Amino acid sequence: MKTFRTIIIDDERLAREELKSLLKDYHEIEIIDEAKNGEEGIQKIKEHKPDLLFLDINMPGLNGFEMIKHLEEIPRVIFVTAYDEYALKAFEVSALDYILKPVDPERLKEGIQKLTSNEDDFVSSQQLVITRKDRVLNTSDKVFIKDGEKCWFIELSKVRMLESDGNYVKVYFDNFRPLILRSLNSFEERLDSEFFFRANRKYIINLKWVSSIENWFNGGLQVELREGEKVEISRRQAIRFKEMMSL
After folding, report:
1. CB atoms < 10 A from the CB of 134, how many?
2. What is the dotted CATH code of the domain comprising 142-245?
3. Nearest to 112 by CA among 29, 13, 30, 49
4. How far apart, in whole angstroms, are the C-alpha atoms of residue 12 and residue 33?
5. How confident is the model at residue 134 (pLDDT cuts 50, 70, 90)?
6. Hey, what CATH topology would domain 4-118 get?
7. pLDDT above 90 (res 156)
8. What would the DSSP string read from start to end of 131-180?
9. Is this structure's pTM higher than 0.90?
10. Do the domains 142-245 and 4-118 match in fold?
11. What are the residue ranges spanned by the domains of the chain?
């Protein structure tokens, strides 16, 4: 098993101690040093050449992003921060993961699994980045979406509909419709069927966004979402829909 030589960089001593305590059971993580700010972090990185950083963002002097800009060789980085607004920027610098404080042990476990996996969950342009790769995602999960130069980090509860468009899937949330190079079937496998319902071959709808339902042709149904979109539920899926939603 590969061992990752690791430096923890955080201006809060208690945060460093807590993280060291959480990491002690992971034999693949070898903590070789720690630093209390960006300047000290740069020095320690040059000295030890670690494989991995657990890096805070808000620190006196150089913040985590500024520190990375000063490095000639950047190790793998897992950001550990109390603020979720930096997530998009973290992905832009190819962070392996982004974990919020206080650190949840299960969430940390996901980050370590990502480190030891051959697959990188934070994939490239025009793909949806799913940070919990081994479980079905529910409406409270957040996902990173990148379409061209535009990026979003949104809660799945805001996604009201997904539409197949050739080799892409169009994701509907707020006033945006980014395209993701994936099949609708792959989304159906990853999204919680209690909330995300396959209406027909072309659409998946978020049941929480349904505002009205009416009978439609050939035994099907038509639903209207709160933003006005209308989607037909095929006859076959209408049977399943009625079974799910009836008392």
Report:
1. 9
2. 2.40.50.1020
3. 29
4. 15
5. low
6. Rossmann fold (3.40.50)
7. yes
8. S-TTS-B-TT-EEEEEETTEEEEEEGGGEEEEEEETTEEEEEETTB--EE
9. no
10. no
11. 4-118, 142-245
